[in-house]
Amino acid sequence: MAAVAPRHAPRAWLIVADDLTGAADTGIAFARRGLATVVTWRDGDTWGDATAGHGIGDVPVIAVDTDSRRLPAAAAAARQSAALAAHRTQGRIVYKKIDSTLRGQPAAETAALLADLRRHDHRTIAFVAPAFPATGRTTEAGRVLVNGQRLEDTPIFARDHSYDTGALPEVLKTAGLESGVVPLDQLRRGAGVVRGIVENAMAEGCDAVVCDAATPEDLLVAAEAVLPLADRMLFVGTGGLASALARRVAPAEPPPPALPPVTGPVLVLVGSVAEASRAAADALAASGRVTPVQVPEAVLRAAPGADTAGRELTAKIGAALGDGHVLVVTEFGPGSDLAAGGAVAARLADLVGPATAHLGGLVATGGDTVCALLGRIGVTGIRLVDEVEPGVPLGVTVGALALPIATKAGGFGTDATLLHCLDRLTTTSPASEKA
């Protein structure tokens, strides 16, 4: 299906996400269409300044990580509202990025942003389409599926979930949002039918419309339907809907800008416990192209700066980077207590950060992990450039260092994803592979 940009298509967007990898894998959809895109994030009680060099109004797409996934509903919602207030300008369309498996507080955060937008336009409605078919996430009968399986029946849900169901209308109702559904059979009747359903929902005062989608083509139909209503929309979704919207807004896909050369070793940091990330780390370690270093759980739980084991681990990582590319993996497994994930990510950053002085490139999984390490080494943002594979964006860091970086959400990818990331960073690089 050819992507045709609607007349007067919006070209300025604000993406509000609850973690860093999500902000990046949504923003990259626009970057690949030639729209300059910068990811920034919350730094303590302030916001990162990654857009300062461009002038915030000159960057067509700003993706903001509020670092709110592990917060209670009210605190997460407040963070999202603060990001909207800090970054929204006149004419900038708002896209609320949610986790494709509904982790975090997507309902409360959506409700907060919807209320904020309605203070300026009472007609605003949330268009909720979390499907990301390229990564196995689909929506049918208003319910989230993972590789065809109900979300509630997956290991992802067993490990981490905020709601008792993957049925989106029920999830939204927990935050007081009343919603309807665009079922798959109606979606496939065409964009006009979908637009009519959404306009009727607006007229009836509905808070949200959940849209089914099982293929990228379904999302293109959805995007075609709702883009003409963009000034009355709060778009809510993942990289899937973002990709469809970007294709409609900017149909051409220009060649990506060149990355700076990787002139030093690449660090691959795996902090996620998701099965996909662990399998990819095992495959990378087995390739012989990296030195694997495991970070014991006991070291991660120890008080910062108070343990000999931590200092020895930092020295070990530094020495390994002196010889070539390094894979750092946390010892956490599916049975580990992840309640203190943010604190553990900060501890991991403290252990790894001092060893990165001569780093040439970075590959990292898990939003907490990525954000903590980048903050530790003085990075304030990421200018997105391209995509290694669906859900795995590639960019250049902004701030104290300009490093090529690939980021990956924990649950995305295949066994070969981390190998693909290393290949992409080193293919045209003068840096030599580890013998």
From TrEMBL:
EC number: 2.7.1.-
Pfam families: NBD_C (PF17042), SBD_N (PF07005)
Protein origin, superkingdom: Bacteria
Four-carbon acid sugar kinase nucleotide binding domain segment(s): 267-418
Domain Four-carbon acid sugar kinase N-terminal: 14-245
Transmembrane segments: none
EC category name: transferase
This protein's UniProt keywords: ATP-binding, Carbohydrate metabolism, Kinase, Nucleotide-binding, Transferase
Keyword Lipoprotein: no
GO terms for MF: kinase activity
Record-stated family: Belongs to the four-carbon acid sugar kinase family.
Name of the protein: Four-carbon acid sugar kinase family protein
